[in-house]
Amino acid sequence: MDHSYGYDYPKPPLTKALLTGLFTGIITTIVCLVFNIIYRDSTGFTPQDFINVSSLIFAVNLLFLILGAVYFIFERLFKKADAIFMVVFALLTIFCIWQVEIGHRFGNSHMTAQFRGLMLGILIISGIAAVFFIPYLYHNKRFEREVI
Hints:
By secondary structure, this protein is mostly helical. It has one domain. The protein has helices at residues 13-43, 53-77, 81-102, 109-139, 141-146. α3 (81-102) packs antiparallel against α4 (109-139). The two termini are 20 Å apart.
């Protein structure tokens, strides 16, 4: 039995890249929210002026929508777009991790360390999702057929 309902058609590359970024962003947001809850419960870190549910939902989804557009541009500009995209965003993730490590958010060293742990977890989750899942899902025919 055919379950395609007549909607199985080739997606334009920009649409495919944006929807891949958005889907990856939604999954990454959920993982970051779960990490946020687990981290805060286990450490007792309570300040929510910078990292909170609203900022995670908005920032992560917007970031990944933009990453989908950037991936589309890489696909248009480079022959080895996947490899270049992965290297660029792995290096960008490492740079952001380094910046969090040297930053001081609070006057209290204990709270700064807890903030770093939370921010590093979110950066690592987001970096892994960007570097590996956007290129993988963009080229995955089953994902294209069944999700987008």
